[in-house]
Request: fold
Amino acid sequence: MTRLVVGITGASGSIYGVRLLEILRQQPDVQTHLVLSAPAKRTIVEETAYAVKDVEALATVAYDNKDIGASIASGSFRTAGMVVAPCSIKTAGAIAACYADSLVGRAADVTLKEGRPLILLVRETPLHVGHLRCLLALAEMGAVILPPMPAFYNRPKDLDDIVNHTVARVLDRLGLPQTLVAEWQGTRRAAKADSGA
Reply:
């Protein structure tokens, strides 16, 4: 059984975390451990058609963000890593400073100290120098900074295609199977272009 911690914070883009949970729920060998920050709960209601209880129901286990005594707050609780999707700058700053005053922050700190993958879908723009220094510090600590940036080479038809592309990149990074996006096979140029005509 693969255990994965999922944090959803208050940055715009809560659909990334929700979609990740939806996909992982279809994988019987993956157990998800979810933490929602208080701002995340508000953002979910503002941005999506989901109720908070419906998002929590997508996870195997859901925790209160104030529960520092939860299983995922200890390195002895073995997981395959953690994804924070989306990750607010506030949360990124707390993780970078090892300021574990919430379960999201503590679980992320545990993930780093145990050498497990920590993937942060940082959602902020534009970024000032302080943000960039924070993200650099996180990368130097071993976190993967994976901002949800849309790709257009796959010719997305709607918003779901754009969300799915980022979620597929997260799953690829974790080594988990996904069928959301096909593996890149290179560009397909016309025969004339290849021949130099």
